């Protein structure tokens, strides 16, 4: 091996050793930072009055709850869904409770050209989009234990690829206006990959990584007023089929289901405070940090002990 290669290997090892020595100190500073942030609430929530938000998958569940929460905060809402009656129902609920403009759009988020057209329409109807909520998602395969290739592909298209298309379509306006919010609804399954939910876990892990990389790119481009926030909830009372199944196999005894309204309130509050990642429930954040300190084999065993057999039953019930 050449001397240059040996030297660069040595440099890398020294850097890791320094980081290891400093990590207790860094950990302490991070904890104090978090504590002071909570106690003195340094980042008060910003206002979105008069801004225009696109909420994908806004025709049902969590997307609908987020659309209603943003409307409550004075934001005009483009409710986007592949299911137009669902989106129209959300618009009706917005108009009953808030004095903002809202419109329903039938769009398939996995289709880039439909998104380009959507951006033009929303800009004309409501104004330039400065808030993007990437919420639309597919939660279950038709055959959970043995999905068809086309079902796997569709989940990847909606849960992962669509986030690249929405970013390409909506981010340039935010960059030109030098402000905006990009919120992505990922899942705890993206951090704690779960058995028998391979595609879902992989798409959610991918979208979390996408947003982490994007946040760094915006920081390098000095776009400090474009906030990227990823929400990672556990099971919600949002999608009825999923909620029923989780109750049947008693996954909810591991942690109770969170209502869509409570999740939406927490996500919008966090987004307006400039939080980067929101884990729901907050306890999951500690669990994740503790778990990643363990060897990978132990991490796998811990997930299997907590949820493995329940998830297998869950998929068997759905077969
Ligand atoms: N429900 C949960 O337990 C849970 C847990 C963690 C994360 N999440 C995530 O939260 C988000 C919302 O979940 P939910 O439970 O409200 O789901 P939901 O099924 O109730 O609603 C999803 C909405 O997205 C729409 N949609 C699906 N494919 C679309 C497409 N191609 N184009 C446009 N719209 C499309 C659907 O029509 C539906 O209105 C998803 O991204 C999901 O992965 C949900």
UniProtKB/TrEMBL annotation:
Coiled coil (UniProt feature): none
Keywords (A to Z) from UniProt: Lipid metabolism, Membrane, NADP, Oxidoreductase, Transmembrane, Transmembrane helix
One term under GO cellular component: membrane
Gene name as annotated: Dper\GL27358
Signal peptide: none
Membrane-spanning intervals of the chain: 12-36
Location(s), subcellular: Membrane
Gene3D superfamilies cross-referenced by the UniProt entry: NAD(P)-binding Rossmann-like Domain (3.40.50.720)
Listed name of the protein: Short-chain dehydrogenase/reductase 3
Superkingdom, natural source: Eukaryota
UniProt-listed Pfam families: adh_short (PF00106)
Gene Ontology molecular functions: all-trans-retinol dehydrogenase (NADP+) activity
InterPro entries named among the record's database cross-references: NAD(P)-bd_dom_sf, SDR_fam
Protein's job: Catalyzes the reduction of all-trans-retinal to all-trans-retinol in the presence of NADPH.
Membrane-topology descriptor: Multi-pass membrane protein
Native organism: Drosophila persimilis (Fruit fly)
Family: Belongs to the short-chain dehydrogenases/reductases (SDR) family.
């Amino acid at each position: 091996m050449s001397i240059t290669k040996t030297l660069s290997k040595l440099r890398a090892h020294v850097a890791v050793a320094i980081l290891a020595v400093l990590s207790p100190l860094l950990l302490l500073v991070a904890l104090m930072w978090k504590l002071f942030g909570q106690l003195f609430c340094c980042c008060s929530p910003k206002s979105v009055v008069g801004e225009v938000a696109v909420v994908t998958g806004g025709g049902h569940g969590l997307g609908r709850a987020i659309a209603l929460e943003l409307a409550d905060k004075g934001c005009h809402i483009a409710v986007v869904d592949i299911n137009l009656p669902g989106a129209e129902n959300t618009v009706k609920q917005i108009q009953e409770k808030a004095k903002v403009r809202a419109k329903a759009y039938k769009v398939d988020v996995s289709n880039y050209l439909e998104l380009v057209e959507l951006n033009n329409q929303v800009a004309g109807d409501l104004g330039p989009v400065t808030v993007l909520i990437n919420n639309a998602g597919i939660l279950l395969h038709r055959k959970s234990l043995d999905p068809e290739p086309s079902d796997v592909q569709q989940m990847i298209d909606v849960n992962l690829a669509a986030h690249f298309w929405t970013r390409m379509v909506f981010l340039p306006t935010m960059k030109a206006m030098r402000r905006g919010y990009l919120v992505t609804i990922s899942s705890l399954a993206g951090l704690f990959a779960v058995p028998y939910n391979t595609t879902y876990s992989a798409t959610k892990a991918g979208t979390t990584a996408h947003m982490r990389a994007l946040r760094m790119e915006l920081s390098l481009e000095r776009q400090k007023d474009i906030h990227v926030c990823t929400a990672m909830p556990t099971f919600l009372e949002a999608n009825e089929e999923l909620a029923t199944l989780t109750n049947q196999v008693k996954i909810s005894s591991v942690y109770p289901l969170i209502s869509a309204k409570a999740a939406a309130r927490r996500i919008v509050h966090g987004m307006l405070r400039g939080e980067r990642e929101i884990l729901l429930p907050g306890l999951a954040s500690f669990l994740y940090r503790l778990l990643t300190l363990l060897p990978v084999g132990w991490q796998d065993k811990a997930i299997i002990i907590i949820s493995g057999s329940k998830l297998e039953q869950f998929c068997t019930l759905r077969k």
